[in-house]
Amino acid sequence: MKSILLSLMLCLTACTPSKSSSRLHSVDMDIDGPRVYDYRIDYGKTVLPGGNRGDSDFGGGRTYMARMPLPEVAVATWRTAPAPDGVVVRFVVPIRDQVTDEEWQGELFTLEFLSTPTTLKVNVLTGITGDKGHPRIRRQIYSGTATSNAP
């Protein structure tokens, strides 16, 4: 009996995805306000293709879904006007330490990047809208405002 319990505990521990292991999840990218330019999110070692899709301007409304690990940090950058004009806005967002194990293992894990030309908010979303067993939960994990001397 002890060996069965030990095997079950080992399986549960090994079967639970750690934040450094790959898992299917989504990253939503949206902007409120005027378009931004050269929008890019470096998500760990991956540059998310949902940003500009080859266009220099970005009006938001993109989702990228893939099997990826949760990165230590994500770096979001864009310009407030087309190059070479406009200020480059850059945010380094701690991700892995801000997301709980329960959120990472939850239903339909999504990171939501909400931008304005000079601000960024990042939310964790889990659960399903309208599902009483797995309700949709949103928690903000980052909020930042660009300074006038942004690189």
Question: Which tags fit this structure?
Answer:
151 residues; mainly beta; 5-stranded antiparallel beta sheet; 43% strand
Order of SSEs: HEEEEEEEHEEE
SS field, number of helical segments: 2
Helix vs. strand class: mainly beta
Arithmetic mean of pLDDT: 82
What is the end-to-end distance?
A: 62 Å
Percent of residues in beta strands? Answer: 35-45%
Reported for the largest beta sheet, the result is: 5 strands, mixed
Number of strands: 10
- Percent helix, as a range, is 10-25%
**Low-pLDDT residue intervals, each spanning 5 or more residues:** 8-14
Give me the Rg, rounded.
18 Å
What is the strand arrangement across the widest sheet?
Answer: 5-1-8-9-10
Shape: globular
SSE layout:
Blueprint: H1 2-15, E1 23-31, E2 36-43, E3 46-47, E4 57-58, E5 62-68, E6 73-79, E7 88-94, H2 101-104, E8 110-115, E9 119-126, E10 137-145
Parallel strand pairs: 1-8
Antiparallel strand pairs: 1-5, 2-3, 2-4, 2-6, 6-7, 8-9, 9-10
